[in-house]
Each structure stands twice: as structure tokens, then as C-alpha cells.
Design goal:
The chain is of the alpha+beta class. The protein is built from four helices and 16 strands. The strands form four sheets. The protein has a five-stranded antiparallel sheet with strand order 1-7-14-10-9. The chain has a five-stranded antiparallel sheet with strand order 2-3-4-16-8, with no helix packed on it. It has a three-stranded antiparallel sheet with strand order 6-5-15, with no helix packed on it.
Length: about 300
């Protein structure tokens, strides 16, 4: 605090200043003090901001990923990709996401459907052969569909394009006769890494769950939304990049299903056969803008995002 004493005529050779001069001096001192306080406060805020910035950046997980959680909707012996327009022609499938999917489903009908997915903007349909424990159907209680950049180099990740609307993809081998015929499908035990993954069913400890992992191809020929065998328009990367026959890199769809079963795997079968016949179908009905935003902000940027498309 600054104090100003008023000089009187007792001081030799000095003339007393008029009162208004003292008022001005007081105001100036107060303004100077306020400026000093604000400057120090600004520095403190600046320091806090500079400290918060790096921390926020450090919180970002550098994994190219977004996801959709799409619970089970229904079962039907239908497959609108492999047997379009033929109800009952397929083995039994368990469907996730779009709740209207049937043998006659197409892009227009699925766009009018409802979904169990989070986010609700994902109207896509996902399906797999139904799992049986003896003669009893078992549906997964965990159903996560990851959209990833992994499988290609970082420079390729930054060029990944969104799935075209209406794209259909089939992954796995429904007619596999042995584990080596379907190397992209694998089974494991939730939270039990001591049990080695296998292309066939595994024996999970009591209290655990059996998991199914399936990776879809992530290289597109850039032209076709489907193909006669439902596979040749897509390919897997080679050496960290897409082959020249399928030059367009798209997200890798990873299907992770968790079934509430464990124990002797001899009890289990899929509607298509043994565990190594696991396969999955995907019919893309994401809105173009939603898919493009997630690919740009999460995959191209190599940032791990949640179901809402944000880190």
C-alpha cells in the first residue's frame, strides 16, 4: 500500500500542492498496483495453462481406433449377403446391430431400421453363425466391433478411407475342414492369457468366458461393393500396405464376441461346424459423414476413440 503525506507551508521553499494533485497521484498509484496484481495473476494462469497443455496431450492414446458396441438382436437362418432373397437358405445366424436384418435386407431397408448399437448412428448389420452348448443356443454378452488402423504402416494409416456406404464384407471360412483353413479366426479365454489362443474352441477356466476374435480384410478394390464370391473385392495387406489389385486402404474391422461359457470345448459347436468355421458378415450402413469424421479424427490421426468418436 502506498501512502502520500500532504506537505504544508512549513517546508521551506516548497509551495503546497493543490488538493486535486494528491487525488490524481493516489489514483495513479492505485492503477499501478492493480496492474502489478493483474500481471502476476496472468503469469500464474499462463503457467497453469502451459502445465495443463502437455498433460492433456499425454492423455491421448496413440492407437488408430474407434468402435461400436452392438448387442445381439435376433437369430434367423438367413444371410442377405450370401443368400439374398432366400429366407431359410442359410445355417442359423446370430445378428447384431440393425434389428431388421433378414434374407431380403438391402441398403434401403436397413437405412429404415433401428439399431442396438452405441452409437445409434451405426445402422450397420453384423452377423455370425450361432454358437451351441449341446443343443442350447448361446449368445454373446459382449459384442464389440473395433475399427482399426493396425495391419498397415503409419504412413498408410494416414491415407485410410472410410468404408463406402453399402459395402459388404465376409471374413473367415465357413467350410473350413481344419484349423489351418481359417487362420484369421481365433478363440481365447477372457482374462486368462495362460490359455493359448486357438483357431478352434478352447478350454476356459471356471468363471471365465470364451472369446472369439475375427479380423476382416482392410484393402478394397475401389470399385465393387460386393463380388460373386463375396470376398474377391477385398484383400488383406501384404508387408504393411495394400496390394496393387486392392489399392484403397479402409479400416480393419475386428469383431470381438464374448460368450458366457467355459469348460470342456467338446460341448460346443457353431451352426457352421467346429470352432475353426467361425466367420462374420458385415453390411455397412454408417452415415457417410459419421464414418468420415471418425476415420479422420481417430484413425488417420492415430488416436484411440470411444463409441462417440472422441478420445
Amino acid at each position: 500500500m502506498l501512502f502520500f503525506s500532504r506537505r504544508t507551508t512549513e517546508h521551506r521553499g516548497r509551495r503546497a500542492l493543490p488538493p486535486w494533485r494528491y487525488r490524481i497521484a493516489g489514483l495513479a498509484a492505485a492503477a499501478l498496483a492493480l496492474s502489478f496484481i493483474q500481471a502476476n495473476a496472468g503469469n500464474a494462469v499462463g503457467d497453469a495453462t502451459s502445465q495443463a497443455g502437455p498433460k492433456a496431450a499425454a492423455d491421448v492414446v496413440r492407437v488408430a481406433e474407434f468402435l461400436a458396441e452392438c448387442p445381439y438382436t435376433h437369430r434367423a437362418p438367413d444371410d442377405p449377403i450370401v443368400f439374398p432373397g432366400l429366407p431359410g437358405a442359410s445355417h442359423m445366424h446370430s445378428f447384431f446391430g440393425n434389428d431388421t436384418t433378414n434374407a431380403r435386407s438391402d441398403l434401403a431397408s436397413l437405412e429404415k431400421g433401428r439399431t442396438t448399437c452405441a452409437p445409434t448412428t451405426d445402422l450397420s448389420s453384423y452377423w455370425v453363425p450361432t454358437l451351441y452348448d449341446g443343443d442350447k443356443e448361446v449368445e454373446p454378452t459382449g459384442t464389440t466391433f473395433y475399427y482399426l488402423g493396425e495391419g498397415v504402416r503409419d504412413d498408410v494409416i494416414r491415407t485410410i478411407k472410410p468404408f463406402p456406404r453399402g459395402l459388404r464384407i465376409v471374413a473367415g471360412n465357413a467350410v473350413a475342414t481344419g484349423p489351418d483353413d481359417n487362420t484369421i479366426a481365433r478363440w481365447s479365454c477372457l482374462h486368462h492369457g495362460e490359455v493359448n489362443p486357438s483357431h478352434d474352441f478352447v478350454n476356459c477356466p471356471a468363471g471365465s468366458m470364451m472369446e472369439s476374435y475375427l479380423d476382416f480384410p482392410q484393402c478394397w478394390n475401389g470399385t465393387d461393393l460386393d463380388s460373386p464370391n463375396h470376398k474377391s473385392h477385398m484383400a488383406y495387406p501384404v508387408g504393411g500396405e495394400c496390394p496393387s489389385t486392392h489399392p484403397v486402404a479402409v479400416p480393419k474391422l475386428r469383431q470381438v464376441l464374448r460368450y458366457p461359457v467355459n469348460g470342456d470345448p467338446a460341448r460346443f459347436r457353431l451352426a457352421s461346424g467346429r470352432g475353426y468355421t467361425m466367420h462374420g458378415d458385415f453390411f455397412n450402413v454408417w452415415p457417410e459423414a459419421e464414418m468420415a469424421q471418425r476415420v479422420r479424427d481417430c484413425i488417420n490421426a492415430i488416436i484411440k476413440c470411444g463409441a462417440d468418436g472422441t478420445p
